[in-house]
Structures are given as structure tokens and as C-alpha cells.
Amino acid sequence: AAMSRRRLQQLVDSLGRSARHFNKSEVECLIKLFNTLVADSNNRFATVGFDRNVFRDTLHSAFGMTDDVLMDRVFRAFDKDNDSCISVVEWVEGLSVFLRGTLKERIKYCFEVYDLNGDGYISREEMFQMLKNSLLKQPSEEDPDEGIKDLVDIALKKMDYDHDGKLSFMDFEKAVRDENLLLEAFGPCLPDLK
Hints:
- This is EFCB1 protein.
- Keywords: Calcium, Metal-binding, Repeat.
- Residues 66-101, 102-137, 147-182 form the EF-hand domain.
- Helices cover 60% and strands 5% of the residues.
- By secondary structure, the protein is mostly helical.
- The protein folds into two domains: 7-100, Orthogonal Bundle (Recoverin, domain 1), CATH 1.10.238.10; 103-182, Orthogonal Bundle (Recoverin, domain 1), CATH 1.10.238.
- Helix 1 packs across helix 2 (24-41), helix 6 crosses helix 9 (169-178) and helix 7 (124-134) crosses helix 8.
- The longest helix is centred in the N-terminal third of the chain and has 18 residues, at 24-41.
């Protein structure tokens, strides 16, 4: 069922304010894309939005993402109310940060993605998990886990300012502000520039 013109206009107006990085015509396009994805998906949330699978397919086809763990985390970062469904508001507001967020917004977003258990820290184990997934398996003599442990140690050395063996948001933010390349230190969770 297509959205009424008036409802669409209301949505465009309110999202034009909350998703600051898009203009109104972009917001409208994203809402239409959202409606198309929902209509094509026949999922159980079809009245309110779409589920993880549709979202992952979109991340994969539009942004070339392939890492299951990270795609799942991106889904959770978008799904602000944790109802396992991406609503149109979550979609547009999420994409606003995902595609055009300020450095501050992207730091907050990446931190959320990397904090796998949501306790406010990126632990050594979490870094290990993500790096293990995002690095290509090299057929080699040595144990790949050793190399990943070394990388985790390097990351902690460089980013753990208060030396408590894990990264708080403040550690992460300071590290990324000093060195922007560290934003996606633990795996690609933002679209590449193209």
C-alpha cells in the first residue's frame, strides 16, 4: 500500500529536520526506496519496515559489504528501538550518518558497531572477533590467530589512552581524532567513498 501524499509530505518534513545531512528531495527518494524494499520483501514486518535479511541484502548490493558480523552490527546500529525491524525513520536517519555523518557522528556510529556486547567498551576479545572476520585468510604456515593477537596489541597500544586494556568511547574518539584512518580500525562498517 503506497503512502498517502500527505503522510509522505509530513514524513519528508520531519525527517528533513532529523536527518540533517539530506535535503528534502533526497529524503523523499530514500522514503520511496524504503517503500520499494519493503514491498519487494514480503517480510513479516511489511507494515512497519523490513527485517535484517532485506537490510543485509541492501548493504551487500549497494555498499559491497560482505562481513556477516559487521552487517549484523550495522543493522543493530540502525535499529534504534531494538525491535528487529528497520522503520522508515531509522532507515533515513541511519543513512544520514552512514553516508554523510560528521566525524563525530561516524565515530559514535563505528564505536556502537564495534562494541559487540553493548557494554560501552571495545574489549580485546571484541577486537579479535572482528579482525578475525575481516582479514582475509592467508594460507600460511603460522597460526593466523597469532597475527590477529599482535594486531589487537598494536591497536591497544595506539588507542588505549587510559591503559585499562580496553577501549572506552573516549579512547576511541581521541585515537580517531588524532588519526582519522583508525575510524574503521576493526573492520569496514561504512560505505567506501564511491
